[in-house]
Write a structure and sequence with these properties.
single chain; 6 helices
Length: 153
């Protein structure tokens, strides 16, 4: 596969995965809200309601955490693939892994700090969203454009 076709494929997969994530979490949050707040109606899509029928609030929250980890791992894999396509080899694999783990760790610390300052929880969620959407992958793609061409020494 040509390099440009591989890059396009990774970007397409990342955008499609991001759209799937948005649909899934939007409906999962509606289902959680329905059970947590004892609402008469759920605003989740009917097919999603059918899929989670009979699940408890605890089950839905667990599903949310498992799905978040799954989407983070999927985007991490796509980011590693993009790095391989952009730069050749796997020389940035450890840096990308450390950055991903660092952002996740910072999100955890901010979440824990939200007990003292509640606004930190929103920042924590935004950092986790960065890892679940193609954000890291797009930063990597843009960073590749900063490289000097080989003939400019």
């Amino acid at each position: 596969m040509k390099r440009s076709a591989g890059i396009a494929l990774v970007l397409l997969l990342a955008v499609l995965l991001g759209a799937l994530r948005e649909f899934f979490f939007l409906n999962l949050n509606y289902a959680i809200d329905h059970l947590a707040n004892h609402r008469a109606y759920s605003f989740a899509h009917s097919s999603f309601q059918a899929a989670v029928q009979g699940m408890t609030l605890r089950d839905l929250v667990l599903l949310k955490w498992v799905a978040a980890a799954t989407f983070i791992l999927a985007m991490f894999g796509l980011t590693l693939r993009m790095a391989h396509l952009l730069f050749g080899g796997h020389r940035y694999r450890n840096s990308i892994a450390l950055l991903t783990a660092g952002i996740a760790g910072l999100a955890l610390l901010l979440h824990l700090g939200s007990a003292v300052h509640p606004a930190l929880d929103l920042v924590s969620v935004k950092l986790l969203h960065l890892l679940q959407y193609p954000g890291m992958l797009l930063f990597l793609w843009m960073a590749s454009m900063l490289r000097k061409p080989a003939n400019q020494g």
